């Protein structure tokens, strides 16, 4: 099946329509997400199936009067405490963390789930204000900063790369003197490997910093008002393979839902992810070590409820924590996961767990499955794709969705953070899944044209 977005916003919000009709006794869940996110459709469908009302809070412009008709709150995730107050006012909570009054019980939210990294801190403050289960705001804030997360995990004797931070606008000579090449430099709060660059020597380091500076000064990043905007993180490059862990914290304990192998080597200079396949083909002993490390990291960070997505490097020294985030896997990747005899979605599993409904403890299906996040080969105007039918005919491929919008500019990594689409496969073995994903991708041809230079109205200079 192919789905092309006419608008990323319409993709999100068209699927939220019809979910705001309240029935007596109906449970309500608040989903916090970017207005350009993909995942809301899955939650809306799962909620409708379960008879649950879903309300959305997004980072859309507050001056627009409900342009998509989904009654979503307009929130500023860069100001999480203020956003939480808006949520409390809308849904009958209290800034002091007390339970909603009887008069406001009809608006009472039973759970808050954040999709993507930016809303996670708002979700924690909102749960506190609404008097419902949620992660401590301090824990969510630590997870949002790559530096604070590294510091917390190191203090707990959990294996992380050597690291330090510096002001990205400052002189570089002193910084270079502190590092042992190769190492990785990255912004403190961007996600999806955006702005992450490996440097093998001083010249590459200087070029990487200049490139990250330009990215952080771009209008697309400036409008996000990210915290610690000027700070960059330097960390040792850890050789080895990468894995991702999808988990769910229940009563303070991490339950691992899936361990994904990333079979493509992620060695730099940029770190665009591609294939995720589960179950993992790593030795059982290493998988056990990864799961134990993930549990230790969750406890060290102070997380105590809800979904968790974690990234690790793995080598002869064991697992190294790259990132822990209190949110589910991003993009459309959740479609690679199914649970229980009825093969319910990850979104349905998370709703069942958050609301205390039966089925929240279902285990992942036995079949192997995987997803390819279709990489962006070069920056340019996306002109379309050929070979989709041939790709869909590959045995074991279950679905292909192209999410890049025709005639839009698409940035490759490290400036980019959005994929061209997703390929899904399911088979008896992880080897078959990986083979199918690669073959399907090889049958498609993505077309791009260069972006025309535009004259800056103030300086008269041409910019691309």
Task: Determine the CATH topology of the domain at 8-135.
Answer: Rossmann fold
Radius of gyration: 22 Å
Helix content: 25-40%
Tally the beta strands. 23
Give an account of the 3D structure:
- There is one protein chain.
- With 464 residues, the protein is of the alpha+beta class.
- Helix content is 27%, strand content 26%.
- The chain is globular.
- It starts with 7 loop residues before the first helix and ends with a strand.
- The model is unreliable at 1-24 and 96-104 (pLDDT under 50).
Please give a handful of descriptors for the protein shown.
alpha+beta; single chain; D-amino Acid Aminotransferase, Chain A, domain 1; 464 residues; four-stranded parallel β-sheet; Dna Ligase, domain 1; disordered N terminus
């Amino acid at each position: 099946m192919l789905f092309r977005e006419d608008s990323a916003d319409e993709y999100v919000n068209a699927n939220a329509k019809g979910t705001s009709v309240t029935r007596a006794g109906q449970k309500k869940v608040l989903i916090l997400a970017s207005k350009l996110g993909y995942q809301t459709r899955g939650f809306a469908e799962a909620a409708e199936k379960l008879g649950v009302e879903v309300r959305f809070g997004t980072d859309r412009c507050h001056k627009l009067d409900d342009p998509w008709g989904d009654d979503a709150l307009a929130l500023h995730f860069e100001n999480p405490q203020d956003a939480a107050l808006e949520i409390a006012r809308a849904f009958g909570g209290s800034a002091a963390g007390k339970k909603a009054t009887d008069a406001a019980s009809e608006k009472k939210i039973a759970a808050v789930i954040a999709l993507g990294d930016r809303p996670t801190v708002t979700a924690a403050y909102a749960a506190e204000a609404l008097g419902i289960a949620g992660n401590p705001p301090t824990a969510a804030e630590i997870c949002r900063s790559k530096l604070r997360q590294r510091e917390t995990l190191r203090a707990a004797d959990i294996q992380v790369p050597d690291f330090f931070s510096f002001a990205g606008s400052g002189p570089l000579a002193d910084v270079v003197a502190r590092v042992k090449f190769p190492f990785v430099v990255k912004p403190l709060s961007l996600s999806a490997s955006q702005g992450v660059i490996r440097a093998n020597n001083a010249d590459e380091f200087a070029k990487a910093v200049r490139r990250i500076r330009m990215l952080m000064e771009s209008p697309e990043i400036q409008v996000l008002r990210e915290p610690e905007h000027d700070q960059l993180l330097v960390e040792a490059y850890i050789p080895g393979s990468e894995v991702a862990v999808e988990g769910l914290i229940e009563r303070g304990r991490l339950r691992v839902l899936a361990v994904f192998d990333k079979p493509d080597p992620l060695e730099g200079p940029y770190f665009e992810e591609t294939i995720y396949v589960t179950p993992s083909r790593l030795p059982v002993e290493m998988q056990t070590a990864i799961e134990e490390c993930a549990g230790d990291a969750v406890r060290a960070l102070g997380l105590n409820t809800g979904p968790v997505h974690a990234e690790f490097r793995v080598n002869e020294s064991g697992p190294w924590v790259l990132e822990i985030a209190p949110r589910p896997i991003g993009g459309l990747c959740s479609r690679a996961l199914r649970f229980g005899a009825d093969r319910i979605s990850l979104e349905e599993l998370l709703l069942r767990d958050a609301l205390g409904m039966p089925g929240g403890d279902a285990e992942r299906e036995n079949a192997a499955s995987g997803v390819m996040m279709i990489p962006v080969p070069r920056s340019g105007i996306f002109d379309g794709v050929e070979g989709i039918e041939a790709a869909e005919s590959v045995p074991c491929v279950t679905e292909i969705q192209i999410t890049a919008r025709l005639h839009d500019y698409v940035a490759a990594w490290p400036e980019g953070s959005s994929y061209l689409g997703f390929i899904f496969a399911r088979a008896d073995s992880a080897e078959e899944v990986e083979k199918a994903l690669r073959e399907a991708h090889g049958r498609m041809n993505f077309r791009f044209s260069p972006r025309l230079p535009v004259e800056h109205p103030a300086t008269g200079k041409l910019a691309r």
